[in-house]
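Table S7 (text form). Paired inputs.
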Amino acid sequence: MTPETVVTLASESLTVATLLAAPLLLTALATGVFIGVLQAATQINEMTLSFIPKLGVLVVSLLVAGPWMLQLITNYTRNLFASIPGMLG
């Protein structure tokens, strides 16, 4: 296994991991900011108030982005398994 192969494999792995995490993290971030602004505007300081909306938005975003995420990880895994013979010799 050459160093270029290792770098390429690591780069692709990080790219796939970032793409898989991005939809959920960005929706949780946007929901948290929105709830935070809403709490600041209404002066409601309840820490558990942001949990339920975040959970709901994450479920919805997982339902929307889930098929794409599954396709992405499946294609990456197939490509990884297909490249094993080339990595060995």
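Next pair, protein 2 of 2.
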Amino acid sequence: MKSDIINEADVRMDKAIEAFRMELTRVRTGRATISLMDGVMVDYYGTSMPLAQVASVAAPESRLLTIQPWDANILGDIEKAILKSELGLNPNSDGKIIRVNIPPLTEERRRELVKLVKKMAEDSRVAVRNIRRDAIERLKAQKKNKEISEDDMFRLQDEAQKITDKHIKQIEEVVAEKEKEIMEF
């Protein structure tokens, strides 16, 4: 018998890990990926919009991104948005298309990125543990209200710990994968 509280905690932990994975796509690895531009917001006639909604982004080569705006009048705005982003990239425009070269990362920059990824991972582990804590508090409340027995409460707490351990292991695997990707030349 799996409790609704445990099922809900499992789903919330899955969502926390998915959010962590999405956050990691914005960490530059020295390889061109279109997800690198996900956080870039462009001022489009007074409205801040994601780059993907005003242009098509492609990665024709491993170290090059191309950005083709649907409205040629916003080329300058897109260039400014890329320069303002914290990606450290320099866009080059030929009047129709923007090319963004992805320079190889220095050893020092790679180490900084690995530290950043580990900090992001720690934040995700804290989120997972907070979900476990909430579930355990709800289980204790159910025991106090005599909705479940003490034995059931302890069994469900063990189950909450098991799913927490499973999710923390997943975070570790994602971190190891991203660290490998960052450190390879």
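The mean pLDDT is 88.
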